[in-house]
């Protein structure tokens, strides 16, 4: 008897497929573009690093670490019991990083190669821009199984090469990956390009997502849901959900010279999933986003955001520890490095532009 296992990159797709495709359906989660990504197969260092990165979304690091370890155990057990395995992954950066990590790290899956298939699509009939399997109808899901590709040893070699590049401590390997065709994983170069764009811009210090958020607010989008739709429309292949966008938006409200201001029942938009018994957060519709004078200046390149707020953060496994370091020049499509002594401009901040809200 065939026992099918379907691994999805999100709950929406898993829930949809569960009703129309027989078998076990599991969803997989991790915001791998927000590193660090230490080496090692499911080692304590890996779990600890990922738990720290996911803590703002899970509520705390302990809860995130427990979730990751449990999901790994459940996945390995399900792979061992399945006679057929299908990986459902979208073309976006989020999914491509997840796919590479899963195939590079999970030894049970690597050992089950002869019964594993990949289903990775950026479009389907009638949907030239597929944002994710979760947006399909139940009738559209089953026919996609005919598009599956059997996984081979060549796929593992290619994914190992991609994962080494994605987890490098410097972004030069991302650039090489973005400029090289990958016949077995055709969306990996696109994902590498989008990851490069998450480095700070050489002129403004804003990464692409920060720029899209800030420009949307300063263009008059003061409601979070409208802003989310606007920012998603700016992306050829959106890779973020609303929670990640709220997290990035909150960061633009931080520091002594914020680029945005938030008004609502709490100082920041809620991003953590409440634990059992915890009260539900306020509705997102209760918040209003306003631009600041410094936000306008930074958008125009008059005040580098990394100099204004030189906090440590990771893009994949590349550490950004201050205003200097790695930058992306989107005009010339090249990497560059700025000196660590880049100074923050002495300009007034925190002045709300009331006229930008509508």
State the strand order across the main sheet. Answer: 2-1-3-4-5
Q: How big is the Rg? A: 21 Å
SSE string:
EHEHHEHHEEHHHHHHEEHHEEEEE
Specify the overall morphology.
globular
Count of helix runs = 13
Distance between the termini: 59 Å
The CATH class name of the largest domain reads Alpha Beta
According to CATH, the fold-level topology of the largest domain is Rossmann fold
Point out poorly predicted stretches: 344-358
CATH architecture of the largest domain: 3-Layer(aba) Sandwich
Give the total of beta strands. Answer: 12
Strand content: 5-15%
Going by helix content, strand content and strand pairing, the class is: alpha/beta
For this entry, what is the oligomeric state of its chains? single chain
Largest sheet: number of strands, sense, barrel closure: 5 strands, mixed
Helix content: 25-40%
Total discrete domains: 2
User: What is the residue-mean pLDDT, rounded to a whole number?
Assistant: 91
């Amino acid at each position: 008897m065939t026992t099918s296992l379907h691994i999805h990159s999100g709950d929406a797709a898993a829930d949809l497929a569960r009703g129309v495709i027989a078998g076990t359906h599991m969803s997989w989660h991790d915001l791998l573009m927000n590193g660090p990504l230490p080496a090692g197969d499911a080692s304590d260092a890996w779990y600890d690093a990922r738990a720290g990165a996911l803590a703002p979304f899970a509520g705390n690091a302990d809860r995130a670490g427990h979730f990751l370890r449990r999901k790994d155990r459940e996945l390995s057990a399900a792979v061992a019991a399945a006679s057929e395995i299908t990986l459902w992954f979208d073309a976006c950066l989020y999914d491509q990083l997840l796919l590479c990590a899963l195939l590079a790290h999970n030894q049970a899956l690597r050992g089950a190669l002869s019964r594993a298939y990949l289903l990775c699509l950026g479009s389907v009939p009638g949907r030239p821009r597929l944002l994710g399997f979760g947006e399909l109808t139940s009738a559209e899901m089953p026919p996609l199984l005919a598009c599956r590709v059997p996984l081979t040893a060549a796929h593992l070699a290619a994914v190992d090469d991609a994962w080494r590049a994605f987890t490098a401590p410097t972004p030069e390997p991302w650039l090489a990956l973005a400029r090289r065709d990958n016949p077995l994983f055709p969306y990996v170069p696109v994902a590498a390009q989008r990851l490069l764009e998450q480095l700070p811009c050489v002129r403004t210090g804003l990464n692409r997502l920060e720029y899209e958020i800030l420009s949307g607010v300063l263009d008059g989008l003061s409601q979070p849901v409208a802003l989310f739709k606007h920012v998603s429309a700016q992306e050829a292949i959106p890779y973020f959900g609303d929670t990640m966008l709220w997290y990035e938006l909150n960061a633009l409200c931080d520091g002594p010279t914020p680029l945005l201001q938030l008004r609502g029942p709490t100082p920041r938009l809620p991003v953590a999933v409440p634990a059992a018994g915890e009260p539900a957060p306020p509705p997102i519709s209760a918040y209003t986003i306003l631009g600041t004078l410094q936000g306008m200046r930074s958008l125009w390149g008059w005040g580098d955001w990394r100099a204004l707020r030189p906090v440590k953060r990771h893009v994949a496994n590349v550490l950004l520890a201050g205003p200097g370091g790695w930058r992306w020049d989107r005009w010339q499509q090249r990497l560059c490095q700025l000196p660590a002594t880049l100074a923050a401009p002495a300009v007034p901040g925190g002045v709300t532009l009331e006229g930008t809200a509508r």
